[in-house]
Design brief:
The complex is a heterodimer of chains A (79) and B (198). By secondary structure, chain A is mainly alpha-helical. Chain A has one domain (4-78). Chain A has helices spanning 4-15, 21-33, 35-54, 62-78. Chain B is mostly helical and 198 residues long. Chain B folds into two domains: 3-88, Rna Polymerase Sigma Factor, Chain: A; 105-197, Arc Repressor Mutant, subunit A, CATH 1.10.10. Chain B contains nine helices and no strands. The chains are: A mainly alpha (79), B mainly alpha (198).
Chain lengths: 79, 198
């Protein structure tokens, strides 16, 4: 039987779609009936979404890029 | 391993340096970003980037293709990052156990009063939320942050992260989940404080 304690352990797997459908259904049911569970479900889901939005890529600085290629060229010549 | 990576690796192993340069081009940005997030500064990230490809170049002949090239490369990069971090911390006493990161379930439940998920402020356009989240990620212990970054920033699957870090799938899932709960908790704290200020 699904309860708050189990929900706490399984929610990430739920959002990563790694749970069996019957367990997902149990979670859905609990979340629709219990306010605390619903708050945890919604806020964790939003946290994951915000993390995904935050993951902007930083560009490799031009001087770092040039230095890397120069460095590797020297190394390649040694072989 | 993607077919294209596989071809490039094979050609590089045969001495075609242009193919190795192509591999560098494909992964340079991913490795730099990962190193930057783990190390927290551009200087160290640049060093890690250079050292990763140097090691990859030197060890390429021993790469057998049992894992994806990207997994192998990330593993090299993560090891270099962790070694650098350990060197910096060597005077500190480091516990071998993973730190307790999240609260107990009953403690979490007691604090679940407000659903801020649909608040118009729960967006990265709200600078304070962005800052709170970034700072919370920086606060994550290294073991959790590395898993979190590989999963998120580098888009690896749980299985791939397990291979990169040489830990079990269960450990990856557990660390990722605890990291997310920790970040959720920090955001909840922010919204509670914000609510009391408003």
């Amino acid at each position: 039987m699904m309860d708050f304690k189990k929900l706490c352990k399984l929610l990430s797997d739920y959002f990563d779609e790694e749970l069996e459908s019957d367990i997902c259904a149990e979670i859905d049911e609990l979340v629709s009936e219990d306010f605390g569970c619903k708050v945890l479900f919604n806020t964790l889901n939003r946290t994951i979404e915000l993390c995904e939005e935050l993951e902007e890529e930083i560009e490799v600085p031009e001087e770092v890029h040039i230095r890397l290629y120069e460095f590797l060229k020297i190394e390649m010549r040694k072989k | 391993m993607s077919v294209y990576d596989e071809i490039l690796v094979k050609k590089s192993q045969e001495g075609d340096y242009l193919s190795f340069e192509e591999l560098v081009k494909r992964y340079e940005s991913k490795i730099y970003n990962l190193a930057y997030r783990i190390m927290g500064n551009k200087e160290d990230a640049s060093d890690v980037l250079q050292e990763t490809f140097l090691q990859a170049f030197r060890k390429l002949s021993s790469f057998k293709g049992k894992a994806k090239f990207s997994t192998w490369l990330y593993r090299i990069a993560v090891n270099i990052c962790l070694m650098k971090k350990r060197k910096k911390k060597k005077m500190e006493i480091v516990s071998l156990d993973l730190p307790i990161l999240t609260k107990k379930e009953d403690e979490i439940k007691r604090e679940l009063r407000d659903d801020w998920s649909r608040s118009p402020l729960a967006t990265l356009e709200h600078e304070e939320v962005k800052k709170t989240l970034s700072q919370a990620i920086d606060l994550l212990p290294e073991e959790y942050r590395t898993v979190f970054l590989l999963r998120g920033l580098n888009g690896l699957s749980n299985q791939e992260v397990a291979k990169v870090l040489g830990i079990s799938l269960a450990a990856v899932k557990s660390r990722l989940h605890r990291a997310r709960l920790f970040l959720r908790d920090k955001l909840s704290q922010y919204f509670r404080e914000y609510g009391s200020r408003a």
